[in-house]
Design goal:
The chain is of the alpha+beta class and 171 residues long. It has 2 helices and 8 strands. The longest helix has 20 residues.
Length: 171
């Protein structure tokens, strides 16, 4: 357990240092990686400790036949997304840490930017008008707005396809 924790902390530190030393903000890579094919399921494990907070909006996110639950917060960007639902966003799985894809129209970005990206975050990347579903530990490219939280167990992302038309709906 300690070895695993040390590896995770070491990888996180390396990612943060690499981002700081480059001098420029990195952007998500559009190059998908291969994943093992696993059958899709419509059963969605949920994190029983995740309860919607006051003012949040419950949504469902569908990737192939898999339905994921999430909540959107009260930020201006999240409220713009809620107003546009249902919405399908062609998305790419980025190195097994996230799915991201561009919205049809920009969402309102009022800051402050969010840099403490955590697995389970739903974020908006204003420079490219992209919504991202973060399901593994990663570093921030900067200029992110946290718009919500995934409430399903994050293992639901295991075995999902590299490219997907992701359907966002009120849930």
């Amino acid at each position: 357990m300690r070895k695993t924790l040390a590896l995770i902390l070491g990888a996180t530190t390396a990612l943060i240092l690499a981002g700081c030393s480059s001098g420029t903000a990195s952007e998500p890579s559009a190059t998908p990686t291969a994943t093992s094919a696993a059958p899709n399921t419509t059963e969605v494990p949920t994190d029983s400790s995740a309860t919607p907070s006051a003012g949040s909006t419950a949504i469902t996110i569908t990737i192939d036949d898999t339905t994921i639950t999430a909540t959107l917060n009260e930020s201006a960007a999240a409220q713009d997304l809620v107003a546009a639902l249902p919405m399908t966003i062609p998305s790419v799985r980025n190195i097994d840490i996230e799915y991201f894809g561009a919205t049809a129209a920009p969402l309102t970005e009022t800051g402050p930017f969010y840099e403490d990206v955590q697995p389970g975050d739903v974020v908006y990347y204003a420079p490219k008008d992209e919504v991202a579903l973060i399901f593994e530990l990663t570093s921030s490219p900067g200029q992110l707005t946290k718009i919500g939280d995934i409430t399903s167990d994050l293992s639901i992302f295991d075995g999902l396809p590299d490219d997907a038309d992701i359907l966002y709906e009120l849930g």
